[in-house]
Amino acid sequence: MGDRTSLVPTFTLSDGAGVYVGDAEQVSGVSAQDFTNPVAYTVAAEDGEEATYTVTVVKLYYTATLIGSFRIGSDEAAVDREARTITLVYPAGADVDLKNLVATFTLSFGATATVNGVAQVSGVTANDFTGVVEYVVATEDGSSATYRVSVTKETQSTGIPAVAAENAVKVYVAASGTRLVVVCAAGSISRLRIVSLQGSVLLRQKYDGLSAREEVDIASLAAALYVVVVETSEGTYSSKFTKN
Fold it and tell me: How many angstroms separate the CA atoms of 150 and 72, rounded?
């Protein structure tokens, strides 16, 4: 809704009736009124009977200040709306320039986002994520919330290990060709991710940490060589596998 001081209503009347605001006859779709305060419309019938309608126009504001989703490229970030933090971690060695990344995000209806006072456009505006970036989400009524966005790369010790312990992790593609079997000799499996040789995380899985053997659905992966990174109760290990 725009300026309430000059709004043009459209209305219908009974046959032969006229409508007035004060002494001014009103024409549907033509006559403008100031609706900053309630306006009394008097409807007069041909037989002289009158009825007065009080019209009140209220502007509603959307007050929600949420970031619904946040991703960079195809990589989804973890959004904690209670803590108002957003986290995205790339594996060590990933070909990502943290100084120039474009985020794609969704906001509450009617909300806008700024970074250091600069308006943010989803999928368009680039930012330097070498440090924490604060997104301020604001609404028309003045409500606002600040989300702290952290985009980082894992260090080598928590990313893809340079050398995996011998026989610590064994992986093989099942006969179906659509499932990867992971067997860990060093502790139970808590997390697993499959990474391309270029460093892009293609799949993530989280487990209850009670089993040393897990299976992963890899039907969506193209035929290629991949690295599987396995986090266990004893450490983080990696191994390569080929999907044909």
Answer: 12
CB 81: neighbour CB atoms within 10 A?
Answer: 13
In DSSP terms, which residues pair with 147 in a beta bridge? 135
Partners of residue 226 on adjacent β-strands: 196, 241
The DSSP call for residue 159 is S
Is there a contact between 26 and 10 (Cβ–Cβ < 8 Å)? no
Mean pLDDT on 97-123 = 95
Q: What are phi and psi of 223, to 5 degrees?
A: -65, 120
CB distance 173 to 219 below 8 Å: no
Output DSSP code: residue 116: T
> How many helical (H) and strand (E) elements, i.e. helices and strands, does the chain have?
0, 21
Domains (ranges, CATH) in the chain? 1-59 (2.60.40.2340), 67-153 (2.60.40.2340), 169-243 (2.60.40.3080)
**Phi, psi values for residue 151, rounded to 5°:** -120, 115
Distances (CA, A) of 111 to 22, 57, 141: 39, 22, 10
Query: Does the pLDDT value for residue 208 go beyond 60?
Result: yes
pTM above 0.70, yes or no: no
